[in-house]
């Protein structure tokens, strides 16, 4: 009898059901609650009277939200393209069996071990015109050197791109390098027999055959773009002005600083829909490839 009870207590199907019930309650339940709040006039205290899509209308007439969306698009395009290019270049260099390869991989993987807050603070200090790179060049007598992008509204966003590429290129390098190490040697023999230049072999033969791996890198990088908050807070705090404002920072500010629960919930739901919209082509291509 005791043995039967023990078996019943540890049945895998019951364990899985409890796990999925917890996901449904805390994850999907939170999404539903956020959507419900976005349909109300909730401010500091939740209001349960549904008023329709009023908060969404306010959201898309809010200049700060529109600027944050434009910033996210510009940042996302430059960040994903730059990280892929730099990470794939590092992977190619490592794939050529260079000397001290382990040290090379460690150096470029190190930024991943550092939190985005620490990364942002480090780059903020480095790019600060008063104490960073510009001040260092001036101390060496190069008075004409200027690099004040961090305090310029038209350039500050690009400093976020630089710091983000530095932080994430190692991740792309590792993923792509794992794919390169799985290439069949017969393919490389055929490339050498045909006399194809190395750069052309990578661009026209090797990388096109690694599309699923590269697509996975793009998905990971897109998630970082949409969730971008830590680096912005640490480096620019959304400034100068709102020149580096991002949707995630907008939502957090309206949740906690401006205490506008309804508008912040609407911003959160729009970020979720944007995530699904960006991931839809990837899942569709994966479905077609498998079928």
Task: Please tag this protein with its features.
mainly alpha, transmembrane helix, MetI-like
In words, what does this structure look like?
- With 291 residues, the protein is mainly α.
- The protein has a single domain, classed as Orthogonal Bundle (MetI-like fold).
- Helices cover 72% and strands 0% of the residues.
- It is built from 14 helices and no strands.
- The radius of gyration is 24 Å and the shape is globular.
- The two termini are 48 Å apart.
- The mean pLDDT is 85.
- It is a multi-pass membrane protein.
- One of its GO terms (biological process) is transmembrane transport.
- This is Glucose/mannose transport system permease protein.
How much helicity do the residues have?
Answer: over 70%
- Beta strand count: 0
Shape field: globular
Q: How much is the radius of gyration in Å? A: 24 Å
Total helical segments? 14
Average pLDDT level: 85
Give the structural class.
mainly alpha
Main location: membrane
Subcellular location: Cell membrane
GO biological process, one term: transmembrane transport
Organism: Rhizobium paranaense
How would you concisely characterize the structure shown here?
The protein is an all-alpha fold and 291 residues long. It is built from 14 helices and no strands.
Task: Record the SSE blueprint.
Layout lengths: L1 H8 L2 H27 L15 H6 L3 H33 L5 H9 L6 H12 L5 H7 L16 H26 L3 H10 L3 H9 L4 H16 L3 H6 L11 H11 L3 H30 L1
